[in-house]
Each structure stands twice: as C-alpha cells, then as structure tokens.
Amino acid sequence: MMFLQFAVWGAWAVMIAIHMQKNLNFTGLQIGLVFGTTAFGALISPIIAGWLADRLMPSQLFAALCHFLGAIPLYFAWQATSFWPLWGCVLIHAALYMPTIALTNAVAFHHMGQSESSATSACGARSAGSASRCCWGCTWVRLSGGRATALLFAAIMGIAMGLYCLTLPNTPPTKEAKNPYAFLKH
C-alpha cells in the first residue's frame, strides 16, 4: 500500500521541474508556485478530508475516491503547455492526494494492532513508501529526459492505487470521534 501510495507522488514530483524548465520555459517563480501546491493541499486536506473520513466514510473508500479523482487533474496536467492550466491541475491533484497520506496511515495503524511487531511492520511499510517515491522519480528522470510523461504515469499509478484501496480491509469511521475544533467554541 505504501509503495503505491508514494509511487503516485514520486512519479511526477522529481520530474516536473525539469519538464517545466526545459520544455515549458517556466520561470523559477512559476516552478516554485507549482511545487507550492502540495503545501496548500497539505494545509486544506485535514479540514475537509479529515472530517469526512472520521465521520462519514470508511478510510479505504475515501482514499480510493481521492486517488481516482486525483488522477483526472494529473491527466490534464500531462497535456498542459502553459503555467495556469498546469498550476491549476497540480493544485487540484494536491488537494485530493494529500489527504490520502493520512488515510493510508490510518488504515495501516488501525489493522496492525498494538504489539511491538506492529511497530516494526509500520516502519517497514513506511520505508517502502519512501523507497517508492525515490525509485519512481529517479527512474523517470532517466527514462523520459524531462518530458511530461511522468504526469501521465502518475495518473495511471493513481488509478492503480485507487483500485488497490478498494481491496483494503474495512476501516469504518469512528462515530464517537471528538470534534477537533471544539476549543474554538470557548
């Protein structure tokens, strides 16, 4: 699961700067703004996705939905030839992808249990994700020579991860989850 999770991100994150600089002639500021979309996605995802996954929908299904929907903007980013369309597509993808990191962690920890061997398993699983991100990114740098094909491959990996999420064990929402924003009422 972690290998596929980070293959989506790793397939495009390493390559996209080369593509934007060499093929699209983006400025350094534009390249930075495209990379900044992942930070924005990480900021907004806990607000929306956390609430949905914690209260309304099983984590594995919400992760699948996010991956399926996130593949669509990656596909359009693959075809983009100017800044605003590419930036918008990557921004939408980031908003859909970033919650899946927490969701896959939630699924993994929910089903691993509380034993010491579970902690070791969690480290191994998470290491597979890091290896995947590095592996796919470096492979695409070498094979595609700075082309946008990495975005298409990332979209395909997103669909593969969405399908895989549908095979994960059920991780139902916790109906008794406390309101994380309760402190704002005081």
Report on this model:
- α1 packs antiparallel against α7 (149-165) and α4 packs antiparallel against α7 (149-165).
- The N and C termini lie far apart (40 Å).
- The longest helix has 30 residues, at 83-112.
- The protein has helices spanning 2-13, 16-23, 28-55, 59-79, 83-112, 116-144, 149-165.
- 78% of the residues lie in helices and 0% in strands.
- The protein has one domain (2-169): Growth Hormone, Chain: A (Up-down Bundle).
- It contains seven helices and no strands.
- It is elongated.
- The chain has 186 residues and is mainly alpha-helical.
In short:
The chain has one domain: MFS general substrate transporter like domains (Growth Hormone, Chain: A), CATH 1.20.1250.
Q: Main sheet, how many strands, which sense, barrel?
A: none
At the first level of CATH, what is the class?
Answer: Mainly Alpha
- Any idea what the CATH superfamily is called? MFS general substrate transporter like domains
Distance between the ends:
40 Å
What is the H-and-E element order?
Answer: HHHHHHH
Number of strands: 0
Helix content: over 70%
Look at the helices and sheets and give the structural class: mainly alpha
* Rg of Cα set: 17 Å
List unreliable stretches of 5+ residues: none
> Which percent range describes the beta-strand content?
under 5%
Name the shape in a single word. Answer: elongated
Number of domains: 1
CATH architecture, please?
Answer: Up-down Bundle
What name does CATH use for the topology?
Growth Hormone, Chain: A
* Separate helix tally: 7
- State mean pLDDT (0 to 100 scale): 80
